[in-house]
Amino acid sequence: MTHFVTQRGENHPGDPFSSFNLGRHSGEDLTRVMRNRAALCRALSIPSSALVQPRQVHGNEVLSIPPNFLSWKDTEQMEYVSRADGLVTDLPRVCLAVSTADCVPLLFYDSRRRVIGASHAGWRGTVGHIALRTVEVMQGIYGSNPENIYVAIGPSIGESAFEVGDEVADAFATAYPVHRRKIISPRRGDNGRHHIDLWVANRADLLSAGIRDEHISVAGICTYTRNDLFFSSRRAGGKLFGRFLSGIFLH
Q1: Angle ∠(78,156,190) on CA atoms, nearest 5
Q2: Could you tell me if residue 34 is inside a domain?
Q3: CB of 127 within 8 A of CB of 172?
Q4: Disulfide check for 248: which of 3, 33, 180, 190 has CB 3.0–4.6 Å away?
Q5: Is residue 7 part of a domain?
Q6: Above 80 in pLDDT, residue 8?
């Protein structure tokens, strides 16, 4: 099994995409993005066709990759993943990846059944419990035992940088009534806004799914703070910004 997280590459003044933007829907010239994605696949020694992503619509739908998926037409593949924010598979040499720039990338690996998963947990996906949903799909389709699943919570916006208004804070309070005090910080600062800890929220879902605490790895790297290494939507002010990839595949 191989898993990875890319970085933004060399920064160029005035260029929001730097040198290694991998986001197909980021607004950058698609030819350049696809050239970067091809370079990544060469470094991983996999064909470009093996790099598979969900469409990422800020939901909680998780799909399994059918055995003949890579033989489908591009339009058929895109239609299949068009509503998904997470993917799982037991197929070797199929690289599941998610693109992010503050949202939480989640990578899953069942060491017994040899099943992998990759999910995109924005704040909506997090309150939709996509981490829990991914484990449920691995259980339902592949018979995974949560105790055998390892999960990586990748670089994403940290609690100190993730300021939200009442609507988002209320959504987390409803979704996590038991853990709300650990996830939602009291109002602070001049603007009196709440702060949300996405890492704690997703970890809570994983533990409730039966994942062992020692099997959960949190990168602990804030993309907003380390914008020199990773793309950050908030740091870019919601304007043009690139995406980095987090992925995993079986050998």
Answers
A1: 125
A2: yes
A3: yes
A4: 3
A5: yes
A6: yes
Q: Which of 3, 143, 151, 126 is nearest to 64 (CA)?
A: 143
pLDDT (0 to 100) of residue 27 = 76
pLDDT band at 13 (very low <50, low <70, confident <90, very high): low
Residue 95 lies in a domain: yes
pLDDT at res. 190: 64
Token pair, residue 164, equals 């939200």
- The secondary structure of 77-99 as a DSSP string is HHHHTTT-SEEEE--BT-EEEEE
- Residues 23 and 246: their CA atoms lie apart, in Å, by 12
Q: In this model, does residue 127 exceed pLDDT 90?
A: yes
pLDDT category of residue 117 using cuts at 50, 70 and 90: very high
CB atoms within 10 A of CB 124: 16
Please choose, from the candidates 72, 80, 83, 22, the residue with its C-alpha nearest in 3D space to the C-alpha of residue 50: 72
Q: Whole-model pTM above 0.85?
A: yes
What domain range is 17 assigned to? 2-156+216-249
Two tokens at 144?
């995974």
The one-letter code for the residue type at 152 is: A
Q: Rounded CA gap, 58 and 193, in Å?
A: 23
Sheet of 184-188, strand order: 163-164, 193-196, 184-188
CATH number for the domain including 72?
3.60.140.10
